[in-house]
Amino acid sequence: MRIDVVTIFPEYLRPLELALVGRAAARDLVDIHTHDLRQWTHDIHRTVDDSPYGGGPGMVMRPEPWDGALREVCERDPSRRPRVVVPTPAGRPFTQSYAAELAAQDWLVFCCGRYEGIDGRVVDAWADDEISIGDYVLAGGEAATLVIVEAVTRLLPGVVGNAESLTDDSFAHGLLEGPVYTRPPVWEGRAVPEVLRSGDHAAIARWRRDEALLRTGRRRPELLERVDLSERDRSVLAR
Ligand code: 6GU
């Protein structure tokens, strides 16, 4: 997969060089390019913003630098068309299934807005997706782009070594994952649940499902509406 990111803060995307995404890039499993939006300004001040039509606080990103950037970035390979993503708190909610949908694309372009956002005409003309990572307001799209790129990259073939790590994830079954434990067997007077040390794999799988169900019921009950619950699952939740 190729990923381009257009931003006025290219350094903000440096974490993509680290850890899981950085290793995936070093192994050519993902090819990430960041671009400074100011490359596509033509005035001495390299202006990217202006005041909003209709008045109000803050500034809006002007369409011309964005159009210049997107023409150059998106038209570099005329044989394919990228999926153009604009992170915005006004977007479609980002979820694990949305991450999987993006992971199936072979080219993504992220447009990081700052200030009050990007001129609506350039969004209309270019964006395939406007995505929100949650119901709170960030200062710009860069942090959201880091979140989306990490969630997508870990789903690409070969990135996560043990494919079981993906199928066991929170959300893989539509449930929150329960607690996990490692050595020592007793720490500060707290013991690891006995069943996990029993070697009984069926009992362990059942215990994990029960913990996931109970945690989801307590913390995110609305998630249970989308899960196919067995009779046994329902009896666990009724406890
Ligand atoms: Cl995608 N962008 C910004 N600026 N704020 C957000 C967001 C995105 N998602 C939630 N808040």
In total, how many domains does the architecture comprise? 2
Low-confidence stretches: none
Helix content: 25-40%
CATH topology of the largest domain: Alpha/beta knot
Radius of gyration over all CA atoms, rounded? 22 Å
Largest sheet: 5 strands, parallel
* Total E-strand runs: 9
| Structure annotation, total helices | 8
List the bound ligands: 6-chloroguanine
InterPro entries: Alpha/beta_knot_MTases, tRNA_m1G_MeTrfase_C_sf, tRNA_m1G_MeTrfase_TrmD, tRNA_m1G_MTases_N, tRNA_MeTrfase_TRMD/TRM10
Domain tRNA methyltransferase TRMD/TRM10-type: 1-225
Family: Belongs to the RNA methyltransferase TrmD family.
Pfam family, one: tRNA_m1G_MT
List keywords for this structure.
2 domains, 33% helix, binds 6-chloroguanine, five-stranded parallel sheet, elongated, Alpha/beta knot, Trp Operon Repressor, Chain A, alpha/beta, single chain
Task: Describe what this molecule looks like in 3D.
- It is built from 8 helices and 9 strands.
- It is elongated.
- It has 2 domains: 2-155, 3-Layer(aba) Sandwich (Alpha/beta knot), CATH 3.40.1280; 167-238, Trp Operon Repressor, Chain A.
- It has 239 residues and is α/β, with parallel strands linked by helices.
- The N and C termini lie far apart (46 Å).
- β1, α1 and β2 (31-36) form a beta-alpha-beta unit.
- The longest helix is centred in the C-terminal third of the chain and has 19 residues, at 201-219.
- The model has no long low-confidence stretch (mean pLDDT 96).
- 24% of the residues are buried.
- The strands form 3 sheets. A 5-stranded parallel β-sheet has the order 2-1-6-5-7. A two-stranded antiparallel ribbon has the order 3-4.
- The protein has helices at 19-26, 63-74, 96-103, 120-126, 141-153, 163-167, 201-219, 231-237, and strands spanning 2-7, 31-36, 49-50, 60-61, 83-93, 107-111, 129-132, 186-187, 190-191.
- It binds 6-chloroguanine.
